[in-house]
Design brief:
Layout: E1 17-21, H1 28-39, E2 42-45, H2 46-53, H3 60-66, H4 69-87, E3 91-94, H5 97-101, H6 106-119, E4 121-126, H7 131-142, H8 153-164, H9 167-174, E5 177-180, H10 186-197
Parallel strand pairs: 1-3, 1-4, 2-3, 4-5
Helix pairs in contact: 1-10, 2-4, 4-6, 7-8
Length: 198
């Protein structure tokens, strides 16, 4: 069984910062919203930050498809995320999995992981301890997303598997708490996170 991540002390007076991350379609948006509401904390989304920064390019989705996002990542990707940790307090940060796991932009991802680790409690979400179950779970969610509606299913499955494989070894060192979400309700996941934090 996966060892429990040790809790670190992030209670600086009234300051509590929580980062939630994981592969795409694992449920970060839903869980971060519900956890923030339960804990009466501000929720911040890296996707929303990206959409705002890429407004002139048509938003995050269009910039990703056109390839223009790569220039933004190289020029300001880290600084946009670092700004959150420098300027905000008492937040739940929904941090995209790509921000912490990119191989192409490995140096930037390392910087993001370092600033997140230094300034927040890291909650990692994965579907299951079993790789096949995890990939199947994420693939079923990915195929329903508008973004992938025209994708060849075999290609999408391979893409999902390749993306997922980066996370378990990365999370072994990066996360303070690891939560498996498959076959759990949103409320059960939020309660598990809450109980492990407090």
């Amino acid at each position: 069984t996966r060892r429990s991540c040790q809790r670190r002390d992030f209670f600086w007076g009234v300051r509590v910062n929580i980062t939630i991350t994981g592969p795409r379609s694992v449920g970060k948006t839903t869980i971060s919203k519900k956890l923030a509401k339960k804990m009466k904390m501000k929720r911040i989304s890296s996707d929303e930050i990206g959409n705002k920064a890429l407004e002139k390019e048509g938003g995050l989705d269009k910039a990703t498809k056109s390839g223009k996002i790569e220039k933004i990542i190289q020029n300001s990707g880290y600084s946009l995320i670092k700004k959150v940790y420098d300027e905000e307090t008492n937040f739940v940060f929904d941090l995209s999995g790509g921000s912490v796991s990119s191989i192409k932009f490995s140096k930037i991802s390392e910087e993001v992981r370092n600033v997140a680790k230094s300034n927040s409690l890291i909650i990692g979400l994965l579907p299951s301890e079993n790789e096949k179950d995890s990939v199947d779970f994420l693939f079923e969610r990915e195929r329903k997303r508008d973004h992938f509606k025209n994708f060849d299913l075999e290609e999408l499955f391979a893409k999902t598997k390749k993306s997922y494989e980066k996370f378990p070894p990365l999370f072994e060192k990066f996360c303070d708490i690891l939560i498996y979400v498959k076959e759990k309700t949103d409320e059960e996941i939020v309660k598990e996170i809450y109980d492990k934090i407090w």
